[in-house]
Amino acid sequence: MTRPAIFPQATAPRPEKRPHSDTHHGVTRVDNYAWLRADNWQEVFKNSSVLDPTIRKHLEAENAYQAALMTDTADLQKALFGEMKGRIKEDDSSVPMKDGPFAYGSSFKLGGEQPRYFRTPRDGSEQQILLDGDLEAEGKAYFRLGGVDHSSDHKRLLWAFDDKGSEFYTLYVRDLADGNDLADRIEDTGGGGVWAADNSGFFYTRLDANHRPSKTFYHAIGANSQEDLLVYEEQDPGFFMNVGGTRSNEWIMIGINDHETSEYRLLRAGEPLAEPKLVAAREIGLQYDLEEGGDVFFILTNADGAKDFKIMTAPAHDPVRANWRELVPHEPGRLILSVIGFKDFMVRLERKDGLPRIVVRERASGEEHLISFDEEAFSLGLSGSYEYDTEIMRFSYSSMTTPSQLFDYDMRTRQRTLLKTQEVPSGHDASHYVTRRLMAPAHDGELVPISLIHHRDTPIDGSAPCLLYGYGSYGIAIPASFNTNCLSLVDRGFVYAIAHIRGGKDKGYAWYEDGKRATKMNTFTDFIATARHLVAEGYTAHDRIVAQGGSAGGMLMGAIANMAPDAFGGIVAEVPFVDVLTSMLDATLPLTPPEWPEWGNPIASADDYRTIAAYSPYDNVGALDYPPILALAGLTDPRVTYWEPAKWVARLREMKRSDSPVLFKINMESGHAGASGRFSRLEEIAFTYAFALKVTGKMEA
């Protein structure tokens, strides 16, 4: 493939080589760029100023290089940012959700980056601002709110923030009578907490030095946090932990899980000093979730071979495995995603034939009904309710052409009430766009769904550029939902497409299993198959496809770059997990032990080592004709550490035989999620879209 010279000449950073070798299962690897990992990386997460000056100098050189190569897109970036910002209602507000005497919601003010949390009397009236994110963020280069939870007596607010991007959250308690925070301050938490029944204290998880939530504590208001009661400690570093509660405020649930196994421990919210009671002991491959149901718990589980999950019940006072009874049986091909319990109803969100649906069940009679929708492809979300004893449930709906709509649904009368339609201030006419659902044949005959949108005037003759997005890991399905940002590409003649590849649960749990561990290669070949199908169907051409993915989707980008560089005209890899083998061999990293069920354990298993080594992007960089590549990262990212893309970029430049540039942009003041403000995040998207437009020759369109 001949690639046009579209970038100005500039000298790319070339970090020195410092060979470092490791040997596992008789295989020795040499890594010339291992030194880019700071020895004090744990300290850097909390204080970026302690980063090794040599590493900092190199990262700053990378930023200078990408800025030089993208300097001619400055005006385009401003235009894109203006368009995307113009599609956002700046002073937008959620529809408050009722809880007792109040209704709680969130809003933004004109020009505001951070949300404000407010409440009104139950049936509306003057707002009381409980927490102003913009005010709290003043003077901070980075700021992201964590959990915000009011107490059941409506007197206090538990809230958290991260001001480094490293996801170590600090918890505060606010007195809602005067708006002041109490002296209670707890650092290094997971980002939220759950109130005890009498609101005199709360439960929370604390992160250890390796960023793992390994301990659940109870904090009594006014007490010294160093003396908080240890409620439960998880000894296995391969399991993460979270703490949650029920809307009836009866139970505290400690959830322990990795990517294939789960376990719960319960205690009553009114008995914070009690020992948590085990529900069902962890058993490799057994997954279950608990949802309140008054005198029972609803249990969503894959027990007994229910691959696509079933719903069971158990008495709330003794919900051990022996007492589980089937309520909604397993149906192959119908994946039950979540369950919400109410006093008289149970609601489940499920996916069948690749599309989501909501099913409402009357508990007394067992009668069920579907909430129906008309479009060919769409996205649904369950918002539920703050209240348990109610007949009103809230859900959201959107499609690639339909702005998000929020409904209240009366489960008894089956009446839906439209509360809000997403407003696009700059205007949106759905009739100007076409959305399609295609099926791409994979190498083994499976059909891979593709959701796409394009302008009605875009010619389908192979001339259109395309941004093809993919993820394909952890069972996460990418919804075909409304995305105002992508319209800036679509209005410039792009086809915007989502590849629903294996590794997600878009076509059921088996779709996930066929894209993990030993079958992980299916994820990558599926994505390449979708690109080839789009070309075969006349939607685009290979040199006009820009592939995009982030995190594990960034690993996808690295893999397809090695496997089929000729199939893409450009690649955008955001916070890319590209040094998979090295990271899975390092048990000290925050996510490594819990990730072994997803990728395999190359320390213990030679087979897992070989499987990962076969696709790990960093290990498979070759002398190939790579397209232009843009990698993005955050210095304090605890999920995909900055040195993974830094090393990958260095090796790509060393090995590639093409003249196409490899750009690396690193945010020195953020982590995995990128910029924390809503508008600063748009600036990052404008940058990536400018790259896509540049490599496809559409900068002037």
Automatic annotation (TrEMBL):
GO biological process, one term: proteolysis
Keywords: Hydrolase, Protease, Serine protease
Alphabetized Gene3D superfamilies for the sequence: alpha/beta hydrolase (3.40.50.1820), Prolyl oligopeptidase, N-terminal domain (2.130.10.120)
Biased composition (Basic and acidic residues): 14-25
Gene Ontology terms for molecular function: serine-type endopeptidase activity
Peptidase S9 prolyl oligopeptidase catalytic domain sequence ranges: 481-698
Domain spans labelled Peptidase S9A N-terminal: 16-421
PANTHER family assigned to the protein according to its UniProt record, in alphabetical order: PROLYL ENDOPEPTIDASE-LIKE, PROTEASE FAMILY S9A OLIGOPEPTIDASE
Protein name, as recorded: Peptidase S9
Organism: Mesorhizobium hungaricum
